[in-house]
Amino acid sequence: METTIQLYVNGKMHTVQVHPSTPLLYVLRNQLALNGPKYGCGLQQCGACMVLLNGKAEPSCMLPVSAVNNKTIITLEGLAQKDTLHPVQEAFVQEQAAQCGYCMNGMVISAVALLNENPKPSDAEIRAGLERSLCRCGTQSRIIKAVKRAANIKG
Amino acid sequence: MNRRNFIKNTGCLAIGFSISGSFIDAPSPMMQELPESIKRHPNINAWLEVLANGQVRIFTGKLELGQGISTAISQVAAEELDLTMENVEIVLADTLRTPDEGYTVGSGSIEQSAMAVRFAAAAARHKLLELAAQQLNVSVDQLTMKEGKISTITGDRSITFNQLLNGKQITDKIQAPVTLKPKENYKLVGKAIPRNDINRMVRGEQFYIQDLRFPGMVYASIVRPPAYEAKLLHLDEKALQKNIPGILKTVVNGSFIGVIAKEEYQAIKAQRWLQKHSKWSAGTQLPAGTDLVTYLKTLPVQTKRDNEKGSMPTDTSSFIKAQYFKPYHMHASIGPSCAVGIYENGRLHVWSHSQGIFPLRESLAKLLQLKIEQIDVTGVPGSGCYGHNGADDAAADVALLAMAYPGKHIRLQWTREEEHAWEPYGSAMIMEVAAVLDSSGKINSWQYDLWSDTHSTRPGGNANNLLAAQYYSTPLKEKQGFSGGGFRNSEPYYSFPNYQVNGHMFKGPLRTSALRSLGAYANVFAIESFMDELAEKAGKDPFTFRLMHLTDERAKAVIRKVQELIADVKQAANTGIGIAFSRYKNSAAYCAVAAQVQVQPKEGTIKVQKMWAAIDAGEVINIDGLINQTEGGMIQSASWTIMEQVRFDAQHISSRDWVSYPIMRFSQIPEVEVAVLNQPNEKAMGAGEAAQGPAAAAIANAVYKVGGKRIRHLPLHKR
After folding, report:
1. CB-hemisphere CA count at 13 Å for B160?
2. Nearest of B58, B71, B57 to residue B197 by alpha carbon
3. Closest-CA residue of chain A to B624
4. Please, which of A60, A151, B163, B251 could form a disulfide with B258 given CB 3.0 to 4.6 Å?
5. B672–chain A nearest CA distance, Å
6. What are the residue boundaries of the Aldehyde oxidase/xanthine dehydrogenase a/b hammerhead domain, all occurrences included (chain B) (predicted)?
C-alpha cells in the first residue's frame, strides 16, 4: 500500500505518496523530477545513482525510500549555491571531464563526499574514493584531474 | 538548453526531410566537391536558420553520443559566420526538423555533417553579404561581418542578419564553388572550445532521453525470454494483476511481452514477477563448456578473398605463423537503453537515442505496418553507446506498446540485465597470420585469414533486425547482416611485396552487431602483435621494423612522435613498454600508441600504468575533443583487452551485470597522454575509433616485453 513519506531533499521537505519499498532513486527521479541521480544497474554496482546521504555518497537504486525519511539527502542539483557551482562541479567543467556524461552524477557526488572527509587526498585515495563508480567512455583520467583541481592539488 | 528549450527542442514541429544519404569525400580547394549530404539537402535553410533573437540555429542529422559533435559542428558554423559560440544553437537528429544523414557512425560526423554545415554557413555568409551590399548600397568588399551584424568598413552604417532577412530564411541552393573562410583567419576552429553540454550535465539539467517527462506519462517493462528463440508457452495475466498493483495493460503478442504500469517501480516488479511465473520453450542452446576458438572453427563459413597483391609462394612451410583471438565484447553502456513513445490520432512519435533515427523510422514503419509519414522519431542523447547497442530495440519495444496503449506517453527503461544479456555484441574473431622474411629482414609475403560473424545488424530500414521482431506473433525471420565490417583494417597498411587477405564469415552463437571500430580492433591487435613477433625474428626494434615497412610519411610521423614521447621513460622492475600503429580504415586517422605495463611475476596480474598516443586526424576542429576521444579510446580498449569477454552457459548469456562482466574501475585505469599532429590543410577526419586497435596491441606487446610471454588470445588476463 502507498503511504505518505516525508523526505528532506536539497534543503526542502517533500511529501510523497509511494509504496515504502520503492527505491529512493525512483522517487527522486519520478516524484521529485530530479535528473541528477541516474539509473545504471539497480544493483549498487555502478554508482550512477549516487546521492549524499547525511554527507556520505550512497547508491540510491536499492535503498527503500522508507529507510531515508529521517536523513538529509543532497543530489547533484543541490550542490550549487544559486548560480555558483560547487568547486567539484566547477572543476569538472574546467577539466571537461566527460564524454557522454552519464556517470558524472556518481563521480561528482563521490568526489564531494571524499573531499569533505579528506580535503587533500592522494592519487590512490582519489581512485579509492571513486572506485564504486563506472565510466565506459574512458574519461577517468580527466575525472581524477578534476578532483585534484577541486582540492587545489597541483599536477 | 534550459528545461523549456529541452521540451521544445525535443517535442515541437517543424519542417521534415526524408531522403537518406552519405557523404563521399571532402572537397579540395581546386576541385570543390560538395558533401553528399548537401547534394541531398541543397538548400541553406535545411542546415541553418536565423532566429528572431539574432542567433543562428544549426540542424544536423547526427546525434550527440558524448563525442562532442554538437560543439564541433557549432564551432564550424560560428567560424564561417563570424559568430560567437553563444550565438549558435544546434538541433540534433529529428525526422521532423533535420536533414537525414543516415547513421552517426564510423567516425564520420566531422567528415560529413560538420563539413556540410561548413559549406551551408559559408554560402549563407555570402548571401547575407550580398543582401547587405544592396541595402547599404556599397560593394561586398566594403563590408565586414561580426556577431550577427554586417557593417561598412568605415563603421558608419550597419545592419543585422535579422533586419536583412525580415523573418524569412535563406532558401538558396548551396552551389560549388563556395568560398570558405581562409584558415589563417580562424578564431574558433582548431581550438579547445569547451563543450556547453558539460555545463548542463554537471548541474543535473534535463539532457538525456532518460530525463524526458511528459504529463500523464506511464512506465513500461519487457519480459525477456530465458534463451534466444525461446517461445512463450504460458503466462497468467490475471495472477499478475492480483499480485502486482498499478498494472494498466499487459501486451502479449506471440512471445513478445510488455507491461505498462502507473509507476516505474511497479513495471519493474511486474517484470520480475512474470519472469518467475511464465513458461517458455527451451530455445536455442549455446555451445557452453567448449573452447570457443575450436567451436567457431567448426562452423560453416562463407569465404571471400578480400585483398591480394603480388603472388604468394606455393610452399608456405617456412612461414612464421600465429593465431590470435578476440572474444565477444559488450558495448556495456552505463545507462541501459531507453525510449519514449506515444500513438495518438493515427500518428506515432518515438524519442530514441538510436544512432540512426531516419533508418529507425523506416524499420518501425515496416514492423508496425504504418506509413513512414505516420511516424516521427526524435533523437535525444543517451548514455554513450560505442556502436549498435539496445537503443533501436528499445525504440521498437516502446513503439509496439504505444500502438497497443494509445493516447499516453510510455517510457520504457531497459534493465541492466536486459542490456547485458540482449544487446548485439561485438563479434568474436579469429585471426591467423603467416609471413616470411627476406634476407634483409623485411617481410616478403604475408598471409592473413580471419574468421568473423557480422559487424552490423543495424535495422537500416529493415524491421527484421529489431529484437522485438524476432519474438512478435509473426516473427520476421530473415535477419540481415553486413559482413564487410570484419575486414576493417585487415589489409596491411605496410608495403609488403606479396600478401593475401581471406575472410571466413560464420554465423555464430550470439547476436552481434557494430561495436566501436568493428573488425579493426581485432585485426590491428593481430597485425600489430605479429609485427612485433616478426621484428624480433628480424633482429630489429619495433620502431625501426615498422618504419622500414611504411611509405606514408604521415604514418611514420605518428610513430616517431610516440617514440619521442616515451624516450625518457625509465623502467622499474617488472615493467615494460610496447607500441603499435594503425591508420583507421586504412583511410582515416593515423594513430600510434605506446603502453607501459607492470606484470606481477607470480600472479601474472597485468596493470596498464600509462598509455601514450600520437594522432593525426587531418585538420583539427576541436583539439580537446580529439584528445578526449583518444584518451577515452585507449582506456576503453585497455579494458576490453585486459579483462573483457561475454560469457554464456548452455541457456543464455551469463554476463548479466558488472560482476559477471567486469570493466576497468578507477584502481586499474592507466594514466594517458595524447600528442596531436595537426594538419590544417588536410581533410578533417573523425578520430573516435582510431585508438582501439593500436591500444590493444601495444598492451600485448608490452606484456611480452616484461615477462617474455606472448599472449595471442584475449583477454590478456584470464580469470
Report:
1. 13
2. B71
3. A96
4. B251
5. 7
6. 203-284
Q: Which amino acid is at B292?
A: L
CB within 8 Å of chain B, chain A residues 96-155: 96-105, 108, 126-128, 130-131, 133-142, 144
- The beta-carbon neighbor of A99 closest among B67, B202, B416 is B67
Average pLDDT value for residue range B300-328: 93
Which positions ≥6 away from A56 have C-beta within 8 Å? A113
Residues of chain B in contact with residue A85, where contact means CB-CB under 8 angstroms, are 202-203
The string of pLDDT tens digits covering residues B384-429 is 999 999 999 999 999 999 999 999 999 999 999 999 999 999 999 9
CB B508, CB B296: distance < 8 Å: yes
* pLDDT for residue B22 is more than 50: no
pLDDT at B106: 81
> How many CB atoms within 10 Å of residue B687?
30
Cβ atoms of residues B645 and B706 within 8 Å: no
Predicted confidence (pLDDT) at residue B305 exceeds the cutoff of 90: no
Q: What average pLDDT does the segment B353-382 reach?
A: 97
pLDDT value of residue B476: 55
The helix/strand/coil state of B418 is: helix
For all residues of chain B together, what is the average pLDDT? 93
Does the beta-carbon distance from A92 to B198 stay under 8 Å? yes
- Find, among B636, B630, B629, B614, the residue nearest to B565 by Cα: B614
B663 touches chain A (CB under 8 A): yes
Closest-CA residue of chain B to A92: B202
Residues of A in contact with B671 (CB under 8 A): 141
Q: What is the pLDDT of residues A101-126, one digit of tens each?
A: 999 999 999 999 999 999 999 999 99
Per-residue cell: B110? 566531422
User: Closest partner residue to B201 among A29, A42, A104, by Cβ?
Assistant: A104
Q: Are B335 and A102 a contacting pair at CB < 8 A?
A: yes
Give chain A's domains with CATH numbers.
Answer: 3-78 (3.10.20.30), 87-150 (1.10.150.120)
Closest chain B CA to residue A89: B202
At residue B493, the 3 state secondary structure works out as coil
Residue in A35, A130, A137 closest to B384 by CB: A137
- In the Cβ-directed half-sphere of B323, how many Cα atoms lie within 13 Å? 6
Residues of A in contact with B413 (CB under 8 A): 39
**Domains in chain B, start-ordered, CATH in brackets?**
3-202 (3.30.365.10), 210-282+331-422 (3.30.365.10), 429-707 (3.30.365.10)
Question: Chain B 257-296, CB below 8 Å of chain A: which residues?
Answer: 263-265, 268
ipTM tops 0.90? yes
C-alpha cell at B273: 514477477
CA angle B57, B60, B65 (to 5 degrees): 115
For B620-674, how does the pLDDT look when each residue is reduced to its tens digit (9 = 90+)? Answer: 999 999 999 999 999 999 999 999 999 999 999 999 999 999 999 999 999 999 9
C-alpha cell of B586? 586504412
Q: Is B334 on the interface with A (CB under 8 A)?
A: yes
CA distance B562 to chain A (A): 19
Average pLDDT rounded to a whole number, residues B77-82: 98
pLDDT in tens, B420-457: 999 999 999 999 999 999 999 999 999 999 999 999 99
- Beta strands A50-53 and A72-74 are antiparallel
Q: Which amino acid is at B15?
A: I
The Cα diameter of chain B in Å comes to 83
Min distance B90 CA to chain A CA atoms (Å): 17
Provide the chain A residues 34-93 that lie in CB contact (below 8 A) with chain B. 34-36, 38-43, 45-46, 48, 75-77, 80, 85, 89, 92-93
